[in-house]
Amino acid sequence: MNTIKVAAKSRTTAVAGAIAGVIRERGRAEVQAIGAGAVNQAVKAICIARTYLAQDGIDIICVPEFTDVKINDQERTAIRFVIEKR
């Protein structure tokens, strides 16, 4: 499964559209964010995606978890949001 990666400068509506599209297609999406700004954008995007999906009668749940990622040979802690249909 492809992970939707969110940065602090990501457009929330664009990320929300990507989340909604993946949920409609596969029923499950993963979003990854590193840093407070990116996590903020990810949470807002998930909220917006929920409103997009509600129009189609789809409700979602979100389970956040920590994950370690390697960037430029450095270990970083990221937040991964697993989003599924309710």
Question: Can you tell me about this structure?
Answer:
40% of the residues lie in helices and 40% in strands. It has 2 helices and 4 strands; from the N terminus they run βαβαββ. Strands 1-2-4-3 form a 4-stranded mixed sheet. Helix 1 (12-26) links the parallel strand 1 (3-6) and strand 2 (28-33). Helix 1 (12-26) crosses helix 2 (36-54). The longest helix has 19 residues, at 36-54.
List the helices and strands and how they pair.
Blueprint (H helix, E strand, L loop, with lengths): L2 E4 L5 H15 L1 E6 L2 H19 L5 E12 L2 E12 L1
Parallel strand pairs: 1-2
Antiparallel strand pairs: 2-4, 3-4
Estimate percent helicity. 25-40%
Number of helices: 2
Biggest beta sheet attributes: 4 strands, mixed
Strand order of the largest sheet: 1-2-4-3
One letter per element, helices H and strands E, the order comes to EHEHEE
How far apart are the first and last residues' alpha carbons, in Å? 19 Å
Helix/sheet category = alpha+beta
Name some characteristics of this structure:
86 residues; 2 helices; alpha+beta; 4 strands; 4-stranded mixed beta sheet
Gist of the model:
The protein contains two helices and four strands. By secondary structure, it is α+β, with helices and mostly antiparallel strands.
